[in-house]
Design goal:
With 745 residues, the protein is α/β, with parallel strands linked by helices. The chain contains 20 helices and 19 strands. It has 5 domains: 1-48, no CATH class; 51-192, Rossmann fold (3-Layer(aba) Sandwich), CATH 3.40.50; 196-284, no CATH class; 349-499 and 528-622, Up-down Bundle (Rhopdopsin 7-helix transmembrane proteins); 649-744, no CATH class. Helix 13 (425-459) packs parallel to helix 15 (528-552) and helix 14 (470-494) packs antiparallel against helix 15. The protein is rod-shaped, with a radius of gyration of 51 Å. The termini are far apart. It comes from Lottia gigantea (Giant owl limpet).
């Protein structure tokens, strides 16, 4: 029985005879997937295309474009829900991912479902709904930005009429017409042709176009209109005729005929169904054959939709599971590559700036060369009187501290460019910390100890000699280093810094399909802040005290016997740089890694190099200098500035020694002689007052010279001797040269 009833009417008919397996039902209109249930409808066959057949086309398209994750949006109707349910099963069978699925029961829910699709980053959207719901859906897609070149809407063509966008912009929908058109631009439909586009002659002897022309001519002379499904009806009759012919041939072999058929003849009924399932021919609607569940097997068309124009791009043959492209596959997407089904997440390490890296390496290497040159100079000229009076061994400690600071910059470069193995990344963190702190302690600690010695010497008010030799300064540096070790060792054991990766999305490198995440590395530990605080407190107090000592000794000017003023400049330099560097290192964000690397490296290199230049460049000039040497008291509490002049280097080396008692005894004699002269030559009371004033000045001068002698002895750690010649004092290393004829110089 051929039927032209709609789905509901078809179901009513077949439900009436569903328990009578001998009633064969064929329909060219029905396309409800419910009729494919062979347990309930074992003898129903349909020549119309079912939308459920689109599922396999969708799977093939996903494979072709390498999509593996989709979202679905379906209207609550059996025609649509049944096909999408089976599509979900196919996704699972093919190891594809369903990111989310929305079932629309009312248009008021569309916003919620579109929002969920966007939330789960559904790029490929499989839709199953009618044209009447499409304006509401695409309006919401427009509002939420779920459209454009990075999204694909894949819909069923038979439910989406090509002219669904031809409506008046009367305010019926929440969006303007152009907004809906923009959101729907380029959607893809899967559809079947009721009239084949083939130019070949079909089984009936007509080409599809000739058949269509013939039918239109016949209808013209009648009062009837031609249904657009007439090719399906024509092929339905042909399929049934072929099945009956085949059944008749088989019955004839058994000496039977169709004329003997009755509704109790189950054998003949089974033969008819078997023959129908084996039918295969090229009809006017396309290839005609039936699946085991009675559905039509036919060619599907993949179409691109824009401006109400539906353009076929490819065909799908379910018999071979092949897509045949009429045009290049990128024609589906207006000539651009197919959208990706997800964001591609790319993680890359923050690229380092090669120019900055090279500049830091070169500058730091220049500093290392300078430090090694200064070290060689200091060792080579350690017996030179100017170098020796500056404590060359303490200077060597300063240089070693500077070299270690340069090494810390190299380690910072290694960490910045990630020139280390993954296994050693945590070790690099602690190594840089150790080297930085110990290098600072050695360099600044030695400067601090030398400043402390100058301060102690020039604060001494008693004439009792107090010698501060270098070994005491070594001990001070050792104590400062031990304090560092007391912090670093438990820090390393209990809470070592870990090379931590911080991931930050890069908007500048990301695009519509790719999200680039930059990986920054930083040495961190949850308890690291407490250990840093202990170091900052310790080093901060050291810097404050060092600044105080440098300020207190700021007026000391003993270039040959000590470099106290230069040491003060070095201390100021370190304090100022630390005052800037430490806050900046914590103020810069992790995204400013390049800037932090450059600033911290240059701060360290600049400060270290400046210390070496301030401390040692003057010594290059002094090593061969033989001119006068001036001494001045340092502290503000001293009101008298005593100036003395030494003999040349030759005299310094050859002159003899004056004992302390000689100097002490000589001063009163000179004073007495001068007082006698004043008393004898001045008789007036005014002259007596002047004489008393002069006497006091001479006594003060003698005491000051004695005190200065002790100060210089403490600094140089050598005994020195004074003799006054022509109103100026000469310094001697040997007492036996005091009375020699060299005094005439």
């Amino acid at each position: 029985m051929a039927s032209r009833h709609f789905n509901l009417q078809t179901r009513i008919i077949v439900d009436t005879h569903r328990f009578d397996g001998l009633i064969l039902t064929m329909s060219f209109i029905a396309r409800t997937p419910v009729l494919l249930d062979r347990k309930a409808y074992s003898s129903v066959y349909m020549t119309n295309y079912l939308e459920e057949a689109y599922n396999q086309v969708r799977i093939s398209l996903m494979k072709h474009f390498k999509w593996s994750r989709v979202g679905t949006l379906v209207f609550q109707q059996t025609l649509f829900t049944s096909q999408i349910t089976k599509f979900h099963d196919l996704l699972k069978d093919n190891n594809f991912t369903l990111v989310t699925s929305g079932i629309i029961t009312d248009t008021s829910q569309i916003s919620e479902h579109i929002q969920r699709l966007k939330q789960y980053d559904a790029r490929i959207i499989i839709g199953a709904f009618r044209s009447t719901a499409a304006p509401y859906i695409f309006c919401e897609a427009y509002k939420q930005g779920l459209y454009g070149s990075k999204y694909v809407w894949l819909l069923g063509g038979s439910s989406m009429y090509p002219d669904w966008l031809e409506f008046e912009d009367t305010g019926k929908y929440p969006c303007k017409k152009y907004q809906i058109e923009e959101a729907a631009r380029g959607y893809i439909t899967i559809d079947h042709r009721r009239l084949s586009s083939s130019t070949g002659v079909t089984f009936s002897g007509w080409t599809p176009e000739d058949y269509n022309t013939m039918m239109n001519q016949r209808v013209k002379s009648t009062n009837y209109s031609l249904s657009r499904s007439h090719p399906l009806a024509y092929d339905t009759a042909y399929a049934l005729a072929m099945a009956l012919n085949n059944t008749a041939e088989q019955l004839h072999k058994n000496n039977a005929s169709l004329g003997d058929f009755n509704y109790g003849d189950s054998l003949t009924g089974d033969l008819i169904k078997a023959s129908l399932e084996n039918v295969s021919f090229d009809g006017v609607s396309g290839p005609v054959s039936f699946s085991n569940d009675g559905g039509r097997i036919g060619i599907a068309y993949i179409e691109y939709n824009e401006d109400n124009i539906r353009t076929p791009i490819a065909t799908y043959d379910p018999r071979t599971d092949q897509i045949t492209w009429m045009k290049d596959d990128i024609a589906l997407f207006k000539g651009i590559p197919a959208p990706k089904d997800r964001f591609t997440y790319v993680e890359i390490y923050e690229p380092y700036n090669m120019a900055s890296f090279v500049i830091v390496i070169l500058l730091n290497s220049a500093g290392v060369i300078l430090a090694l040159s200064v070290l060689a100079f200091n060792i080579m000229f350690q017996n030179n009187k100017h170098i020796k009076m500056s404590s060359p061994k303490m200077n060597n400690i300063i240089i070693m501290g500077c070299l270690i600071m340069y090494a810390a910059v190299y380690i910072n470069c290694i960490q910045y460019a990630r020139l280390y193995s993954p296994e050693s990344k945590d070790s690099i963190c602690m190594l840089k910390l150790w080297i930085s702190l110990l290098g600072f302690t050695l360099a600044f600690g030695a400067l601090f100890s030398k400043t402390w010695r100058v301060h102690v010497v020039f604060r001494e008010t008693s004439l009792k000699k107090r010698s501060i030799r270098d070994h005491k300064l070594y001990g001070m540096v050792l104590i400062l280093t031990l304090i560092d070790l007391l912090i670093l060792i438990p820090w390393t054991i209990l809470h070592p810094l870990i090379d931590t990766e911080i991931k930050v999305k890069s908007d500048s490198l990301s695009d519509d399909d790719t999200i680039v995440t930059l990986i920054y590395t930083d040495c961190r530990h949850p308890y690291g802040i407490y250990w840093y605080a202990s170091e900052y407190i310790y080093k901060g107090l050291l810097l404050v005290f060092g600044t105080f000592l440098a300020w207190e000794t700021r007026k000391v000017n003993v270039p040959a016997l000590s470099d106290s003023k230069l040491i003060g400049f070095c201390v100021y330099n370190i304090v100022v740089v630390c005052a800037f560097a430490v806050p900046i290192s914590h103020a810069l964000s992790i995204q400013q890694t390049n800037l932090m690397f450059v600033l911290m490296s240059l701060f360290t290199t600049f400060c270290t190099t400046l210390v070496l230049c301030i401390l040692f460049f003057p010594k290059f000039k002094l090593r061969n200098e033989s001119g006068d040497i001036r001494f001045a008291q340092s502290l503000q509490s001293r009101s008298k500035i005593i100036e003395s002049t030494c003999v040349t280097n030759t005299v310094f080396e050859r002159f003899g020694e004056v004992t302390q008692s000689t100097l002490t005894a000589r001063a009163p004699i000179v004073v007495s002689e001068k007082i006698g002269e004043v008393v004898n030559n001045n008789k007036a009371s005014e002259e007596k007052k002047e004489t008393e004033k002069l006497r006091k000045e001479l006594v003060a001068e003698a005491n000051a010279i004695a005190k200065l002698k002790l100060d210089i002895s403490k600094i140089t750690e050598n005994e020195v001797y004074f003799h006054k010649v022509n109103g100026k004092y000469v310094v001697f290393k040997q007492a036996d040269l005091v009375d020699s004829e060299l005094l005439s110089v």
